[in-house]
Amino acid sequence: MTGAQRDRNIKLGSGKKKATPSNESTGWSRPAEGRRETAPVQRKSPPQSASPRRNEPRRNNDNRRGSANKQGNRPARPQQNSPLMEEQWARVIDHDLANNVVVAVSESKLLLCRLKPKAGIDQLLVTARVYIGEDSSKRTHIAQVLGMTNLGRLANHIRADLPLVVQIFIEENEKHFIAAFFNVAGNMSLKQHAFELLQGVGNKKAMQMVEARGSSGFESLAALNEACNIDAGELLAKRFLSELDDRNIQPRLLDLLLPVKA
Fold first, then answer.
1. What is the C-alpha separation between 193 and 56, in angstroms, rounded?
2. From 226's CA, which of 55, 88, 201, 261 has a CA 20 to 30 Å away?
3. Lowest mean pLDDT, pick from 57-61, 84-88, 103-107, 216-220
4. Structure pTM?
5. What are 117's strand-pairing partners?
6. In the 3-class helix/strand/coil scheme, how is the chain assigned residue by residue?
């Protein structure tokens, strides 16, 4: 190659050669210069949850619960008085000498109850009237009222005697039941009379009883039985017993006719 050709192939720059950045040759970035170190920012901790964590013991609930709950006990419920506390007299149905227990029915609401007789007394007869009120000086036969019972817990022979006991109670207080029911009973609806609540009394028999009653009414159960050819005391006793056995029977003559008013 001649000298002239070499001169043409050589490229000459027009000025000073530009300096290439150092990071292209080394791959390292140049450290920052002249910067001030800033303090790390403190992050605020998130608010603690109101509910306790699983691994932490629960807080005391003394502020929310009563003093009775501090020991882990539920507050005591108010004691309800037994309906027998309002009863004064009862009729004996059975006296079990072996277990020293008397089964009776109260007169005010016909509540079945169990009684503890006093020691040394003779066996009480069926239908005997005994005092069960709170006045201990009047209790000549009963030492303690044990509590209430129901028809399902009674022995068969006691259930068999119960209708007779209730019937005798009705007949001994016939003036009350004649005035409260037999002489005032009327129509419950266009198709049913109150007399039809008694077992075996249909609409025809009910109209016969109304006609026999007339405007003056019945003077006694005997006069009613003779005029209508029924046993009014027995029929009313059966109605009472059916209501004792089934609390859903409506209307309830037990609530309407008791207690007996002297």
1. 72
2. 261
3. 57-61
4. 0.70
5. 142
6. CCHHHHHHHCCCCCCCCCCCCHHHHHCCCCCCCCCCCCCCCCCCCCCCCCCCCCCCCCCCCCCCCCHHHCCCCCCCCCCCCCHHHHCCEEEEEEEECCCCEEEEEECCCCCEEEEEECCCCCCCCCCCEEECCCCHHHCCCEEEEEEECCHHHCCHHHHHHHHHHHHHHHHHCHHHHHHHHHCCCCECCCCCEHHHHCCCCCHHHHHHHHHHHCCCCCCCHHHHHHHHCCCHHHHHHHHHHHHHHCCCCCCCHHHHHCCCCC
Write down the domain spans for the chain. 84-154, 173-249
* pLDDT exceeds cutoff 50 at 28: no
Percentage of residues in the chain having pLDDT higher than 90: 67
Tokens read off for 72: 């882990």
Reply yes or no on whether the pLDDT at 222 is more than 50.
yes
Cα–Cα distances in angstroms (integers) from residue 107 to residues 143, 178, 257, in the given order = 18, 17, 12
The model's pLDDT over 206-215, given as tens digits with 9 standing for 90+, comes to 999 999 999 9
Q: Say which CATH superfamily domain 84-154 falls into.
A: Nucleic acid-binding proteins (2.40.50.140)
Looking up tokens 């109101």, which residue turns up? 50
Cβ atoms within 10 Å of 157's Cβ, excluding its own? 10
